[in-house]
Design brief:
Strand 1 and strand 2 form a beta hairpin. About 10% of the residues are buried. This protein is mainly alpha-helical.
Length: about 70
């Protein structure tokens, strides 16, 4: 899915998604031939997790720490 669809499904803005990519909370997406960002469905789950953590006032560093545990 493209970034606009991910933003629509998640309720996050496109700018927020790009910010989370720069902060390395979301992995860099693959690109289409037209250089559009393409996200797989697992990115929606990851973005919703980040969103839930932010509602609990967790910092980005704390969220990164949770990803370490989540991967293990």
């Amino acid at each position: 899915m493209k970034i606009g669809e991910l933003a629509s499904r998640s309720g996050c803005s496109i700018q927020t998604i790009r910010y989370y990519e720069r902060e390395k909370l979301l992995p860099r997406p693959r690109r289409s031939e037209g250089n559009f960002r393409l996200y797989d469905p697992s990115m929606l789950d990851q973005l919703m997790f980040i969103k839930r953590c932010r509602t609990l006032n967790l910092t980005l560093d704390e969220i990164r720490g949770l990803f370490v545990f989540r991967e293990d």
